[in-house]
Amino acid sequence: MFKAIVIEKDETGYRASLKDVDESQLPEGDVTVRVSHSTLNYKDGLAITGKGPVVRKFPMVPGVDLVGTVEESSHSSYRVGDAVLLNGWGVGEGHWGGLAQKARLKGEWLVPLPSRFTPQQAMAIGTAGYTAMLCVLALERHGVTPDQGEILVTGAAGGVGSVAVSILSKLGYTVVGVSGRLAESDYIKSLGASEVLERAAFSSAGKPLGRERWAGAVDVVGSHTLANVCATTKYRGIVTACGLAGGMDFPATVAPFILRGVTLVGVDSVMCPRADRLVAWQRLGTDLDIAKLNLITHEIGLAEAIPTATKLLDGQVRGRVVVDVNA
């Protein structure tokens, strides 16, 4: 038996609870992992609370991230005792995830735990940090360099935003953060932002084009915010989009794209090919100041994940949440 958060839906309603689960109930897979830590992401918050159509079958164990040690393996790449981590691949949505003390998974979904990181540090980074790194790699791939101007990061007090600010500032970029919580301005600046702007300046309908300011951007919000970011991006600037905290809609015009040559780059972390994941984690090992992880992260026990999910969706959680599944 092991402990897990289990989401159920039946005639009595939708609920998430901490349960004892028999190992025989684990889904199919060729690697069984003894989980040490998971995380709580925005998607996990939606799954646990039922406020978004994230879970595709029931019962479901949420948790899009996990780190742990291989307990059983019939996969050629992994042996008993190997330290591994996982981000995405639909885990926590259609396949039991990491908010449990055990997980059974496909070996092709796993990545070896980089030696530079402890399990806790890997989860402090988690899907949010790995997604932030994919956004930075996209900016670099499209030729955005520090001398070209400011980089805007929306949702800068959240998980993706916090890591993106930290990485970009270490790489020498001038970073401007956007947040709906100006009380977090000192925190965002401590991560490396030169300035913090109020979210309200971006969150309502704007003009098709605004004053050019950003050489590049990392957006986790979508909707009007993403439209306004594109409208104020400089000629041939690059905007990476990886989230929808403000909505899935995109109420924009084509003006930034056909008049200024702005490029909008979609960044997907869930089904991202393994080769790209390995590059992202390698770069995280060199480009993220590990000392800043303590500023970004706080740790909770498995039972605390359920009430914390509501706080996360209400915008009351700063940075990253690491879940010690054995606490």
Give a concise summary.
The protein is an alpha/beta fold and 327 residues long.
Count of alpha/pi helices = 9
The residue fraction in helices comes out at 25-40%
User: Approximately how much beta-strand content do the residues carry?
Assistant: 25-35%
CATH topology of the largest domain: Quinone Oxidoreductase, Chain A, domain 1
Q: Structural class from helices and strands?
A: alpha/beta
Tell me the name of the CATH class of the largest domain: Alpha Beta
- What does the overall shape look like? globular
Q: Number of DSSP strands?
A: 15
Biggest β-sheet: count, sense, barrel? 7 strands, mixed
Rg, alpha carbons:
20 Å
What's the name of the CATH homologous superfamily of the largest domain? Medium-chain alcohol dehydrogenases, catalytic domain
Ranges with pLDDT <50 over ≥5 residues?
Answer: none
CATH level-two architecture of the largest domain: Alpha-Beta Complex
Q: What is the average of the pLDDT values?
A: 96
State the end-to-end distance: 16 Å
Number of structural units classed as domains = 2
- SSE order: EEEHEEEEHEHEHEEHEHEHHEHE
Question: How would you describe the overall organization of this protein?
Answer:
With 327 residues, the protein is of the alpha/beta class. 28% of the residues lie in helices and 27% in strands. It folds into 2 domains: 2-113 and 290-324, Quinone Oxidoreductase, Chain A, domain 1 (Alpha-Beta Complex); 125-266, NAD(P)-binding Rossmann-like Domain (Rossmann fold). It has 9 helices and 15 strands. It is globular, with a radius of gyration of 20 Å. It starts with a strand and ends with a strand.
